[in-house]
Structures
1.
Amino acid sequence: MREFDHPAHAFAKPEALDDLLVLDCSQASFAGLVASSFLAELGAEVIRIEPPGGDPARHFTPFGLLHQDTGLGYLVEGRNKFHVTLNLETPEGRELLKMLATKADVLIETFLPGRMDGWGLGHRQLAPVNPRLIYCALYTYGQFGPRAGCGQPNADITDQALSGVTFITGFLPDGPATDPSAVPTRQGSWHGWALGGLWGAFGILTALHARSTLGVGQFVDVSPAEALMRSADGACAWWELDQFVRARVGNFDTAIFPYAYFRSKDGYVLLAAVMDPAWKALTALMGRPELAEQHPTVLSRKALEVQRRLHREVEAWTSTLTFEEMAAKAEAANRGLEMGVIVVGRVVDLPDVIKNDHYRDRGTLAVFTDPTYGDLLIQFPFQKMSASPPRLKWTCRAPGQDNAHVYAKHLGLGRETLADLGARKIV
Amino acid sequence: MAAQSYFDWTARLFDPTKIFGRPEALRDLRVLDLGTIFLGPTTTTYLAEYGAEVIKVEIPGVGDTIRALGPTYHWNMSLIGLSEPKNKYFCGLDVRKPRGAEIFTRLVARADVLVENFRAGTLERWGLGYRQLREVNPRLIYSAHNGFGQWGDYGTGRPSYDAIAQGESGMAAISGFPSRPPLKSGGYIGDYLGAVAGASTILAALHHRMRTGEGQFIEIAQVEALIRMLDWTWVYHGLTGRYRLRYGNADVGIVPSDIVEMTDGFVAISAPTDQAFAGLARAMKQPDLAQDPRYRTQLARAKDENREALLKAIRDWARGLTTADLVALGDRHGFAAARVASGKDHCADAHLETRRTLWRHDDPIYGRFPLYGPPAKLSATPGRVKWTIKPIGADNDFVFRALLGLAPPEIRTLESEGIIGRWADKPGQKPPDGWSGEGKAL
């Protein structure tokens, strides 16, 4: 299988989406950038349209760190995209975008709903000049509904908070005192934007498929908050069917024990024994068969206070073993199991990921030499595909770095025209 | 006035009452689902919501583990079982047995996509690997989903769960508070991210097939998908030599962005642009903050000492407000403020209900319960929910008779041999008590 889909062969193979022209007008949102990255990795010609001076997202960067004037988040998501500047605040700038949109397959934007429409660049105005255009807008509250016009900007943290995932994530206080680390907790990364962007790509590709039979494009409206909401599956049904508010349970699971993180001799592990026979086998391994007798069924282990007590008992065992020792014991026990399985997995620190040869071997995470930004340790496309694989061509460009190429190729604007437009702050 | 007419227009364009009057985007696709527990099955759920005919193939008397994933049961079905699948046809076929694999191969010949999430190499042992099935159907898109990939020296033979993917990718290591252990998300976020990433990749492969006629093999490794989506984590180490830590709810890359505790709950608050920050400063009645060189720009606000002082000032200010106050101030002044919402909050949210993101489902078998509806709203070909789960094998007649043309006596023989089958008498598998058979496809 390695020879079949190894990313080392990617550049010898065709690209899945290289017949598509995508305009990414997103600003101050990584949801739009993730959506266009997905398409660009798979071959689409993506034109990033930034205001002169660059997208504010270029300054979303830890501790204000810049590398060649670019924030570290943007370095990751500028990949394979041609970067132009265009001032949409000016009538001439809007006219140029409209000309580009006339020939594009996809347009992505993250403005407040109605902003593009007010500029004459909304789906309403572009569809008549390009009926095949797929217009994708990403906004926390979406394009319709009572909150769509609330005026709040896009933000990853509000996407996460609204999704319901934050509510069910985080530790519980150990005692009655307030503990600032025992509160609803966001994912460390921009996970709302990640899911919003992936759902944007999914919506666009679904609309693209429909276009092959309908012949026309359509409007794709994605709320990153709602995209992440799917990861809280069941929370709404749990409330209405049982009047139970699904709440956070620390490193436990709401329904299953053990399916939790435990301390081991060499770091944290996930230890899971989802089916009852596996739990029984685990307690035998621990030399504590009475625990399975006291709590034989998954339902009898569900209550949080039971989970907490059993967690202490199991951790007394896991903390005497390394991950490898525990995994070997689990594997031996699994051979005797007819149903269910004891599963052990690592909860690693970042150096373990970075130093793991597996990810270099698979082309997942490695140093990449970018033509503009030099050597960067960076994540590559995550999919392996045998016939039309994704690939990384460059990771980022400066604002307007591709103005000459893109404006010549798509609008026939040469050096002197661009100089004039630049002098008038249009590009 | 212009903005108002925009929202009138979008309300009509996306009118949820018209969903079932509009065509389905993926209605020409047939997808086979040979997965269990989210990663594979949720991938096909997303395709089914937008119209693909998804045939879920389960081992008779066993089925997908999600059927038995509590926390509670209704009508003999677990809550997760009720909530997760959408619009699939459910058949019981033991593909581990040669005769079952042979029947499955006939389904493959009529399918566009196959999604599986067994351990690497398992299906090849049963004669159902990509190398075998592409002989039957060269146009097949075969998507193999697992934890660490189909080849390589690390973990490829091991089972993987969502919580392992969160742990192995570094997602847990960067989530939570520095004084606490790595944090596992309460949601199965690695599975759900892998599923939409996988579904999108399958659509890209279908686009390639439309242009070339060629099928292909896809790998989606859950850990790799999460590694990809950890934004600046890796670049930061490469450029500084330092490792990203757990920073709690405060974002060190977008300032201010934090979760604050109010008198009546928790609220996320953020001002991601300088313009939004000026709005927040006005709401705090300290408009000068937006001119202060320590806070005027995103880059200045992100410096450690400035960030901490600013977040403290925001917490102190917000503490005296209610959630409703803060959200209203966000609306008025143009910064982001939103309740940390629960499932209960979702059920009372008129906005989500208007958008059918809170989908008030009336199931042909199980009746009424709420779901989270399709997140991507497509104006011309909207996603929809027709039904969720069914008992194992409920659609056997549709699949084996209508699709494969097996004669009823043949089906009975296969049933007696345990090749084709249905549910065992267990919650999660069997129908609701007193079920008349309504809701089967045939």
Note: The radius of gyration of chain A is 26 Å.
2.
Amino acid sequence: MLQATLTNERAEHKRATANRIKKIIAVALGAVIALSFFFPYIRFVFKDSVYALSGLQLATVRGMRVAGPQMSGLVTIPLLTRIAVIAGVALALLGIVLLLLRKPVLAGTAYILAGITPLIVLITTSNIQTAVTSLNISEISVQYLWPFLGTLFLGIISAVLCLWTQGTERLAESIFKVASCVSVGSVVVITIYILVTGAPAIAQIGLGEFLFGREWAASSEKFGILALILSSIAGTAGAILLGVPIGILTAVFLSETARPGVAKLVRPAVELLAGIPSVIYGFFGMLVIVPAIRTFPPFQGNTTGDSLLAAILILAIMVLPTIVNVSETALHAVPISYREASLALGATPTTTIFKVTIPAAKSGILAGVILGVGRAIGETMAVIMVAGNVPNMPSLLGPVRFLTTGIAMEMSYSSGLHRQALFAIGLVLFVFIMIVNISFTYISKKGVQMDAE
Amino acid sequence: MPSKSLYCKHKHVSDSVLKTLIYLAAAVTVVVLVGILGYILVNGVPYITWKFISTPYSEMNPDLKGILPMIINTLYIVVITLLISAPIGISSAIYLTQYAKQGRLVRAIRFTTEVLSGIPSIIFGLFGYTVFCVLFRLQVSILAGCLTMTICILPTIIRTTEESLIAVPSSFKEGALALGAGKLRVILGIVLPCAMPGVLTAVILAVGRIVGESAALLFTSGIGYHMPKDFFRQILTSGRTLTLHLYQTAREASTPDAMNIAFATAAVLLILVFLLNCLTRLVTKVLQKQ
């Protein structure tokens, strides 16, 4: 009995010592973060000379006078940079204080935020770069990477140490929780970014002009994407019209009529079809489907082969595996008793499939179709290789440009309003995809509810 | 139910027609696959030589038309992306299955994972370009491509890992808990090892996605083709993967020779995808045996 108490006490003592050590290290690291702002940590490389600025200077200096042969000017340091630098020091100090006040969770948060502030400095100093470049004197480059990474890691390590003082279990839970917030964070950031980068062009061009303008000509600053929108819709609709019947019937084959041995061969084939990179589909389309359309007797002379039809055929192949997989799962989920009841009433197996099994699985099949729509509307590389990429109004045998390929075609050499217009196309595409996504979620939820009934 | 009887009058005709349609559809699916595979492999495999795989690439020099730099770039992107994405994805699956109570956060995570898996890769490319290349000043570089791909494959890893974690029988966990093990120890010592084949499947699927990706990498990791000199310099410069190499060579090809390079690259890609597919199958089989 006595011995047991003694061991307990010893363990308790050990834990207390360990906690003290963790605390001391966390405080020390916090101090390093705070102090690092007083050492040079951002370097402006300007012509041949290097200016190393500390955080303190960055926060207090008014700006840099830059003089060139023709022009000179004062390059001010953005307000946000100053705020971020000061916040970095303040948050690190706050972390130390909170830790000493025995509030480890809050202290950890403060440390993480302190670690992130250099990121804001990094982003906002790009203003300095543009300002200097616009003075047309010389290139300026900002060297920053290592101090930034250092601060970030110090912040994370000290935050981990803070939380660790509460026990390993709590620390682990916090780490898992933070990791799972990454996907939430990415979606939020992506949405914000697509909105922020896409909106200015739409505002400048005008929403009606942009969405319903019939002409896209970057050289004469005409940015109307009606042709792109209609081509995307036509391509997707065509692919779905072709792909859905084949896909559903293949799913029926796999789940209802095929002998197990045959299904065992076809199923991996469908899976492999899903795994083939889209560039290979495009390559195949470019070399087989496009020449086939060009030389197909009824079309001969009317088309070069690079056409909406080629895009539709390739997209129909690409949406097949999605539709087959989802529909097969839905068909499998139909209770066997439904089929038995139908057969017992004297219906033939085929009638049972079309009148009982497929209707019972229809919400699942619809979900598959919507997923296919999403895949077709977002596909870029395969389409770019077969569709001809001329921003025409859609016609079956003429070259067309989709929303996705519109972005990919011109991204590398665009600038100014043109580039912003491409981001705006991204925004339109994003809205389309969100509509598809949300209807998918809605329908699959409805399917689950029906199953529950 | 419609009022008319299920027992149709025209049963014989429609029955056989519908049955033929079903078989026809399945045949179309198989023929399309066999056609694509056959076409690429027959035209590409003869040009895959050791020299093709082991020499660098140059646009000017006709002797240097190998794909070694692209293989190395693809490896860089696969490894770095997995190093970032796998820990985040697996931790997040652990949180969702072992810790989280049904609530707003869990719903938000589920919804956003679904949204992420639906976003087309060209949007990821645009986002990666504006954020990682421009805003974070990584320029068009392999590292920027990796960070973009990290977000791309997160849903794949989270969802597949989650499924395998759910499949671990709760009696295993309860047994360990009853023996006095802490929750973290149960997760790391019992649940995760039991779900290992599933986690492995998730990683292989992610590798497949990265190897096949092109649109998201076009603007982020770019189309550079130089041999890497040292690791850190290389990940900060532009480098094309195998898919982008195929895209570039196929678009620029004007001579039959150039077309053969594209064919051989496509064949290498297909073989890679096929091997990854087989690997997934193997791991799933192991999982089912357990």
Note: Chain B touches chain A through 92 residues (CB under 8 Å).
